[in-house]
């Protein structure tokens, strides 16, 4: 077995734990929201307003699937549709105030539970994990989490919606 296979197995095992943490955190805050719906709201919260096609691309789903998710999230008050400020002709999707609140609360719960898990790890193994996970998330294109203010880093100032 190669290093890549060993690492892949380890990441798959860790991902089961992280999905469980995510599901518990979400259920404690908003039991009607699914993990894929939360993922969409997190993307909108962290990256700012987006067109439907860009959002579908990021989620790796068909635009029709993304549209149905958006419709449900608009109905539940998690996202809003707004005029694209760059073109004034198109519609973009944005996280609503309620959506941002849910993301913030879910992330705070996730952070607390992950912190308890990390605290149980041997200290000498923690430092290498930071570097490895940072490289992993960078390779996957995931926005970084800021522990300083317990909110996802905002890319709104850099985001283009046209």
Automatic annotation (TrEMBL):
Residues 140-162 are annotated as: Disordered. Residues 145-162 have a biased composition (Basic and acidic residues). InterPro entries: HTH_MarR-typ (IPR000835), MarR/SlyA-like (IPR039422), WH-like_DNA-bd_sf (IPR036388), WH_DNA-bd_sf (IPR036390). It holds the Pfam family MarR. Residues 4-138 form the HTH marR-type domain. Gene3D superfamilies: Winged helix-like DNA-binding domain superfamily/Winged helix DNA-binding domain (1.10.10.10). One of its GO terms (biological process) is response to stress. GO terms for molecular function: DNA-binding transcription factor activity. This is MarR family transcriptional regulator. It comes from Lentzea aerocolonigenes (Lechevalieria aerocolonigenes).
């Amino acid at each position: 077995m190669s290093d890549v296979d060993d690492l892949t197995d380890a990441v798959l095992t860790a991902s089961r734990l992280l999905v469980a943490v995510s599901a518990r955190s979400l259920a404690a805050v908003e039991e009607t929201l699914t993990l894929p719906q939360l993922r969409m709201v997190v993307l909108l919260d962290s990256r700012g307003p987006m067109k439907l096609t860009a959002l579908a691309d990021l989620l790796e789903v068909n635009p029709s699937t993304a549209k149905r998710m958006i419709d449900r999230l608009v109905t539940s008050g998690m996202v809003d549709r707004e005029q694209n400020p760059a073109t004034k002709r198109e519609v973009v999707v944005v996280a609503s105030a309620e959506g941002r609140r849910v993301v913030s609360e879910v992330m705070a719960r996730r952070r607390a539970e992950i912190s308890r898990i990390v605290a149980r790890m041997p200290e000498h193994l923690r430092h290498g994990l930071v570097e490895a996970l940072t490289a992993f998330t960078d390779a996957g294109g995931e926005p970084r989490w800021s522990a300083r203010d317990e909110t996802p880093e905002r890319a709104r100032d850099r985001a283009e919606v046209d």
